[in-house]
Amino acid sequence: MMAGAGPGVSRRRAILALDSATAACSAAVWRNGAVAARRFAVPGRGHAELLIPMIQAVMAESGLAYRDLDSIAATVGPGTFTGLRIGLAAARGLAMAAGLPLIGVTTLEAVAAGVAASLRAGRTTVVALDARRGQVYAQAFDTALGPLSAPAALEPAAVPTLAPGRPVVLVGTGASLVAAHFEAARRAPGDGLPDAAVVAALAVGRAASEATEVAPFYLRDPGATPPDVTG
Amino acid sequence: MLVLGIETSCDETAAAVVEGSGRVRSNIVLSQLDEHRPYGGVVPEIAARGHVLHLDRLIIRAMAEASLDFADLDGVAATAGPGLIGGLMVGLTTAKAIAAVHELPLIAVNHLEAHALTPRLGQSLAFPYLLLLISGGHCQFLMVEDVGAYRRLGTTLDDALGEAFDKAARMMGLPYPGGPAIEDAARSGDADRFDLPRPMAGRPGCDFSFSGLKTAVRKTITDLPGSPPRARDVADLCASFQAAVADVLEDRLGHAAAAFHGAHGRGGALVVAGGVAANRYLRQRLAASAARFDLGLVAPAPALCTDNAAIVAWAGVERLRHGFTDPLDVAARPRWPLDPEAKPAIGAGVKA
Q1: Nearest CB to A66: which of B52, B90, B101?
Q2: A25: which strand partners?
Q3: DSSP letter at A147?
Q4: Superfamily for A116-187?
Q5: CATH classification at residue B286
């Protein structure tokens, strides 16, 4: 199903995937080449309370113990600063506790991979996630989900420059912000949120890393300024 | 009993393993001071970013130094508040993940309770005792009556004491953090040179206020020759500032001791905890003040006064013994008063 997943690889792997990088919060177990259990919610807030119980629920439903897994997968961002830290703290904590490696997937890849292959065929997939402050986190992908641009925080009007000259399918929570700037763009159905089930499927074909090396991908600096000294 | 403790409520990332006997098997603290120094204070987003990058490595080190596997633990304790929410979530989520994998009890620890129970770590101190918690985030008197049973006698109405030190230091051009800088400079200073106010002194109750003292420091600096002020003047001002703080603490302690003795009888212990309790001048002055009010001073080692995870693990031990554990959906609490009956102090916000 996924680019890069060799035959046989997906059948052997058992992966726990999670995402809390945006408004959504989800967990999924991948086993024997398919999603064995999935939970998905759009809580807006409260990811830190929801995520671990969700993970416990998919593990219980899959019938797997943590020692049966061969890796953890998680979205690394971009997204809300707090949300992606919750996801990575959980993923790195689980990986450490279970002695597993970690596979980091960007939210932009995860949202692009959520678009049906039939809709991506012959088109450039442009992901735009609402980044607040009048910007979107955006990236363009080819039909096989190869990146055509680097992930970037952009003004909506700048997004069409990522995909010149080909038909476009637009996806993501920021799609409505950028759609008007395209001469013509197909809108993918659905809410354009990352989904742990898709993250798991993407992770199947990828090499895992030492969990302590998988860092949040913020795409923005902390926005701190030295204080005024009047106290 | 073996408990892993995790601390991420402010700008220290820390992990420790403590035994039920009070023996500290490992205690690792990574300070982010260098990252925050250019800003003259803790920047929450920078702190949270640091915690998520370093916490698991520190836990791995703490477990290795203790020669333990996660399966050997009896519980995982993490600071769940009060503090900076971004950091709290990182520590608490990591603790939940470990607890989930190894089916261990989770203990969501109140950071103030960790400070409050520190004098029982490695030594025997029976309840009840009087606690003066003086840190960058707090300035309170509490009666510690049992694990989970605290009565607040007084709190700052504006700045925490550590905050007052930081702000005064910044006004004098001293480096961040201000507490150690003021303590060092004061050593050669004349405490009688500047007549600074003793806010709240002579008034009933045990509350504190430091904004008037801060204003007086600023006015004194403005009136001094030279900009930045000369080292001699700074030393004298630091010494005068510390003397004013010690006088205020003594005055307030008189009222807190009376309340404590009224509730629990004569004698007993005064415990000073929190980062400002590492200040040696204040420790000396507090020892004398405590004796004056029929209390014995108990001051934990300075390394246990500043933020660390051994005290969180120890609070975990104490709570686990009482069967106080928490579910995996427990939320971090940026504001979490130890005494739920205590009235909020409007000007102090989460500090009360």
Answers
A1: B101
A2: A41
A3: B
A4: ATPase, nucleotide binding domain (3.30.420.40)
A5: 3.30.420.40
